[in-house]
Amino acid sequence: MKDKFNKLAEAAKILVKQPSLINLMLNSNENFKTKFQAKYPNISALNQLTINYLCDEVPQIPVSTFFLDGGSMLTDLRLLMGLASRKDVNSYFEIGTWRGESVFNVAKILEDCTTMNLSKKDIVSLGLNAGYAEQHGILSRKNPAIKHIEANTKTFDFSKLGRTFDLIFIDGDHSYEMVKNDTRKVFASLVHEKSIVVWHDYAYSPRKIRYEVFMGILDALPQNLHKKLYHIKNTMCAVYFPFEISSEKYKEFSLPETIFDVEITEKEFRN
Questions:
Q1: Regarding the domain with residue range 47-249, which homologous superfamily does it belong to in the CATH classification?
Q2: Which residues, if any, are the signal sequence (predicted)?
Q3: What letter does residue 254 receive in the DSSP assignment?
Q4: Residue 201 and residue 230 in contact, taking contact as beta carbons nearer than 8 Å
Q5: 250, 144, 175, 143: which is closest to 206 by C-alpha?
Q6: Are the C-beta atoms of residues 96 and 171 closer than 8 Å to each other?
Q7: What are the Cα distances from residue 96, in Å, to 60, 153, 188, 211?
Q8: Domain segments of the chain as ranges
Q9: Which has the closest alpha carbon to 212: 182, 181, 176?
Q10: Which of 2, 178, 199, 216 is the most exposed place for a label (fewest CB within 10 A)?
Q11: pLDDT tens, 26-37?
Q12: What is the DSSP string of 143-198?
C-alpha cells in the first residue's frame, strides 16, 4: 500500500511540472478500451477476412515503400492494391496523403486516383516541423495523374466534389473525433451502394486493436452497417464491405495461418 502511495505522490509531482502529460493518460489505448467496452459490451473486435478473400486477385506488382515511420505495412498496401484490382473498382479516394505511398501504389492499377491532405502551410501552422510538412506527397507527386487536394476535412464540404468513389481509404487524423468526422462525411457524400471503405490504424499492429479509432468508426456509422465491418488479417486495416461475405471471429492468440515471402530491391530516391 505504501509503495502505491509513493507512486501516486511521484505521479502527482510529475503532473504538476508537466500538466500536458495528463493528455497521454486520457488518450491512452487502455483508457479508450475502457470507454469502448462500456459503450459496446457485446463487441470485442471485428470479425476477420483475408486479403485474398476480398479480392478478385492480388496483383503481382512490386509494392513501393520507404519503410519509414508512420507508413503502412506491406500487407496494408497489398490490400489496397488487391481491392483496386477488383472488376467493380475503377476509382480511388483517400484522406491522408502522408508521403504518398498508398495512392502511389494504387495508381499503378487505377487511373482515377485522388488524395486529400492539409496543405504544408496548414501543417506548419499547427506547430509541426517544416521538414515533416515537406515530406507530404513526396512520392505521390511523382505521378502527375494523381489528383492532390489540399483541404481540412474538418471544414471541407465533400459534396462539392460532386461524385462518389468505388474505393475509399481513410488515413487522416487518428483522433476519435476526426475518425468520426471523416467517416461520417465520407459515407454522407462519397459512398455509393457498392463502395468499399478502408480505415488504416484500426489496429496498432495486426493483433493489437486501436480502440480510439475503432470507437470513432462505430460511432460514426448507423448500427445496421456495423455487421459489414471487418478486420483484414495480417494488416492494421478495417474495411466496410457492402456485399454478403462469410467471416470468422477474431482470436487474439490463434496460430499463424499465412506466411508471406517478400523479395526486396533497393534504389536511390530523389525528391
A1: Vaccinia Virus protein VP39 (3.40.50.150)
A2: none
A3: P
A4: no
A5: 250
A6: yes
A7: 25, 10, 18, 20
A8: 1-32, 47-249
A9: 176
A10: 2
A11: 568 999 999 999
A12: -TTSEEEE--TTT--GGGG---EEEEEE-S--SHHHHHHHHHHHHHHTEEEEEEEE
Phi (first) and psi of residue 235, to 5 degrees: -135, 175
Amino acid in position 129: N
Q: For residue 117, which phi and psi values (nearest 5 degrees)?
A: -155, 160
* Contact by Cβ (8 Å): 71, 49: no
Q: Which three cell numbers stand for residue 162?
A: 460532386
Q: Between β-strands 238-240 and 191-199, what pairing exists: parallel, antiparallel or unpaired?
A: antiparallel
**What does the pLDDT look like over 151-180, one tens digit per residue?**
999 999 999 999 999 999 999 999 999 999
Cell matching residue 91: 476509382
Amino acid at 73: M
> 30-35 — which CB contacts under 8 Å span 24+ positions?
32/176, 32/211, 32/212, 32/215, 33/209, 33/211, 35/211, 35/215
Structure pTM? 0.91
